[in-house]
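INTERNAL AUDIT FORM
Audit reference: QA-55
Scope: verify that the stored structure record matches its stored sequence.
Auditor: D.O.
Record contents follow.
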Amino acid sequence: MDNTDYTAKQIQVLEGLEPVRKRPGMYIGSTDSRGLHECLREIVDNSVDESFAGVAKNIWLTLGSDNSATIKDDGRGIPIDKHKSGVSALEVTMTKLHAGGKFGGGAYKVSGGLHGVGASVVNALSSYFLVIVLRDNKAYFQEYERGNPKAPVTAASQKQLDSWLPPEWGIKINQPESGSGTITKFIPDKKIFGDLVFDKTKAKNLLKDRAYLVAGLNFNFKDVRDGEESHYYFEGGIKSLVTHANRGKQTLSDVIYVSKTDANMQIEAAVQYTDTFNENVKSFVNGINTTDGGTHLTGFRIALTRSIVDYAKKLGSIKEELTGEDMKEGLNAVIYVKMPSESLQFESQTKAKLNNPEVQGFVTSAVKEGLDTHFEEHPAEARRIVEKIMLAAMARLAARAAKDAVLRRGALEGVTLPGVLADCQSTDPSISELYIVEGPSAGGSAKQGRNRSFQAILPLGGKILNTERAHLDRLVKSDEIKNLIVALGAGIGDSLNYDKIRYHRVIMMTDADVDGGHIKSLLLTLFYRHLPEIITRGYLYAALPPLYKITIAKKIFYAYSDEEQTQILKENRDAKYTIQRYKGLGEMNPSQLWETTMDPKTRTIKQITISDAEEADRMFTMLMGEEVAPRKHYIQTNAKFANLDI
């Protein structure tokens, strides 16, 4: 079928929108920040699909001050002619589930939208939804409230377009240079999402990922809230994505690129090892980031393990049994599968995990063949990779031996650590909190001031091991880290099980000085590199203790910044006051520590999140790794922004 053949005949309908508002989680996974940005992804991917159809070359995304998102493409424009149901094809697409050119394979062969439910679901979950279609030098529009059309599809006036669209887009009626395409603007419904707002970093990462996947497609981003603009365009495809992720790292090979196509499927894989200890693997299907992996990722891992083991045997290098876990150390890879959209099978509507069984075998065969060929043609690179994997295997066995030795001594048999961990009475992880406290002095005050029914205290003896480049065998030999791992209850390494964690709030409480900041950095490195799901599940927090205690006429105020201190003094300028600067948590008595830092009603704690995993990985490598020059440059560049209390 010609790619330009996109009319009402290609629109098929299965179901209305009533279920979406009743059970939004069934369609977008959740109504938290992830669900909010799933809505954004659905609309952006509709525009990306126009590129897959060989039409769109540019996509624009603008975040508005009213928490709106406006997405424009220069594709064909959604059909506005009358559908067989009696209304416009545009209205059918936006108000019926499983309605669109993707269902039935008529207008798209490759699509990121499963069954075309994306736009209609977002419409149902938006307080305001606007679609503008540019076709044949004319503009048509329809507005909706919570999924319900306000009026039939109507021709738009120039005045209306000017009021709706950014002026830099220059959309003019009856001017061919305005081209064709679809513009979608939506405001998420507060009844569904509360006060959540679009995260600029997540929005930019969405576009950047798509730009890597669709070589030659130009993405333009603007955030009206602060005026920031970004542009993404990559000719190198997924090879560029791996290269970008590994900048600043010592690589063991060039990017290994594998590609294979058959009648029903295409696989691309880009692989590169570095001398780091951490894995960074992304998987995609039809432009969708399958964050939970699936059959394509399983097929890739099988191929990688078989290929490396085969080459290691050829070299005679295998002294220990190699496992798939050993292959992960230093691995950076992208796996991208394209296939007919009507064949896609996902574990849920959020499309986080691919379930097509036929994909696994195809990917395994293609990647194994490609890696074998590369290793034969580049033996020096292959040898370096095998040596890296062998070291990982030896470290794994050493870690297991060290852990077994500790177990035999009985130190890990129970979760109670007499004299170190002051545990809480609750056994319900959802309400239990673990405070990781700097030093015995603050630990003593925290133990006395806490609510022992749900708050546990674990004092640290000092700075912990820098785990950026530490294998598991070193971790389990460190008393401070071992105590923390046992207290958490989730294990480490091959015994790690996050479902067994004993606290759903793990709160770092350190002094507000340079040493406290360093301890917090070391803890963050440990969690990010070795216990990452504690962060991604939302369990990790940082306590924000006050910097000042201000006493005014026997009334006590706490200031958490210099600005807050100035404001308090300004509001009480005529009164006598005394100021105490807290140099450390140990200076607070138990009641003060409870009031300022531990009482859920009055404390300030900050949840640790990762909005940009790629940038977080780069920052940890730079700040906590062995290379001095990048860290020195960063410190010199950003020192003027730091507020050091030395």
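Auditor finding: record pair retrieved intact. The longest strand covers residues 126-135.
Action required: none
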